[in-house]
Design a protein that fits this description.
single chain, mainly alpha, two-stranded parallel sheet, 2 strands
Length: about 60
């Protein structure tokens, strides 16, 4: 386990819709994006903001 959250770009594909559904189900809708620009911005933000990344990791750890 790498410990990195999954982010997704909602689109027309089955995989993107399932991933968005799973993120909603576990209470992490903040990891769902709707444009390529937002996807890239979120990836960069999580990479450069360890506080936000750690908060998401902590939230995810409570689900297990």
């Amino acid at each position: 386990m790498v410990g990195l959250p999954v982010i997704t770009l909602v689109g027309e594909t089955f995989v993107s819709r399932v991933t968005a559904s799973l993120l909603n189900a576990i209470g992490l809708p903040e990891l769902i994006t709707d444009t390529q620009e937002n996807y890239e911005a979120l990836a960069i933000e999580l990479g450069m903001n360890p506080t936000k990344l750690n908060a998401i990791k902590a939230k995810l750890a409570t689900i297990n």
